[in-house]
């Protein structure tokens, strides 16, 4: 679904994404984690071909319409420019499939609204919703796109705990249905509980790639995140709690 080969993105002379090679297949929910400034957003934007890059991304090679059918993009900034109704905004997710929304389009929009619990918001003006409600609308638009791959930049930031869990469950369901999701996260607990795999970025490099329980070792948490944490695999799933900071 996505292959990256030596993907590199420069800011000035400085590589903020440095020779990243990795791939994503169906069924995966990948948590892209790393400290502030590690290069997570830049990696996703380069993979999508939204910024200049070196190396190769299988998505960036596609023409824009084919790329939009292959991957939905949820940027960190949740900007809703127009005062459209929620249903109209979510229907914009159908644009990569042509102007005629048709029965399949209407079904996809209805399913996305239902999945995000937005049926009662259909006629509300999207710009008049709360930040968390707008976030759910934008996720619904991405789901309505029916692209196999979703790239989401901090999709749970600013959401209440229930909405965070629900969002991760929506992504997991998308992966379980044969799609895949790459989402950047700062909540390592949610990453550990919900993701099938994590990619860890540090200073532009992909320094670890594997199942959360293997990757989130005491040494990695100290080296990359400068924290000490409690991490335990329990009957209720992985439990993670950051305990204290370590000297950088
Ligand atoms: N437009 C830009 N011009 C110059 N430097 C930039 C630009 N965008 C990002 N950078 C730099 O690139 C590096 C990586 O930024 P990026 O936004 O990818 O990090 P991130 O891992 O997503 O961070 P965060 O967790 O804080 O959102 C940072 O050092 C940042 O200052």
TrEMBL record:
InterPro entries for the chain: AAA+_ATPase, ABC_transporter-like_ATP-bd, ABC_transporter-like_CS, P-loop_NTPase
GO MF, any single term: ATP binding
A Pfam family annotated for this UniProt entry: ABC_tran
Entry protein name: ABC transporter ATP-binding protein
Organism this protein belongs to: Thioclava arctica
Gene3D superfamilies membership: P-loop containing nucleotide triphosphate hydrolases
Keywords: ATP-binding, Nucleotide-binding, Translocase, Transport
Keyword Nucleotide-binding (UniProt): yes
Domain of life: Bacteria
Function statement: Part of the ABC transporter complex HmuTUV involved in hemin import. Responsible for energy coupling to the transport system.
Residue span, ABC transporter domain: 2-228
């Amino acid at each position: 679904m996505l292959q990256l080969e030596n993907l590199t993105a420069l800011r000035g002379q400085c590589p903020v994404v440095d020779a990243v090679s990795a791939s994503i297949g169906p069924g995966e929910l990948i948590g892209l984690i790393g400290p502030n400034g590690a290069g997570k957003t830049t990696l996703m934007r380069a993979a999508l071909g939204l910024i200049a890059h070196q190396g190769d991304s299988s998505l960036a090679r596609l023409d824009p319409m084919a790329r939009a059918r292959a991957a939905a993009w949820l940027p960190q900034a949740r900007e809703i420019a127009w005062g459209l109704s929620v249903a109209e905004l979510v229907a914009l997710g159908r644009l990569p499939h042509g102007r005629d929304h048709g029965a399949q389009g209407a079904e996809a929009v209805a399913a996305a609204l239902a999945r995000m619990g937005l049926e009662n918001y259909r006629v509300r003006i999207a710009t008049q919703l709360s930040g968390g409600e707008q976030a759910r609308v934008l996720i619904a638009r991405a789901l309505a796109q029916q692209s196999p791959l979703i790239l989401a930049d901090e999709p749970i930031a600013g959401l209440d705990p229930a909405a965070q869990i629900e969002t991760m469950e929506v992504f997991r369901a998308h992966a379980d249905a044969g799609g895949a999701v790459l989402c950047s996260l700062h909540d390592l607990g949610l990453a550990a509980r919900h993701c099938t795999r994590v990619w860890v970025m540090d200073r532009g490099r992909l320094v670890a790639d594997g199942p959360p329980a293997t990757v989130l070792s005491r040494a990695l948490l100290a080296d990359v995140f400068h924290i000490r944490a409690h991490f335990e695999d329990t009957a209720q799933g992985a439990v993670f709690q950051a305990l204290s900071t370590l000297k950088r």
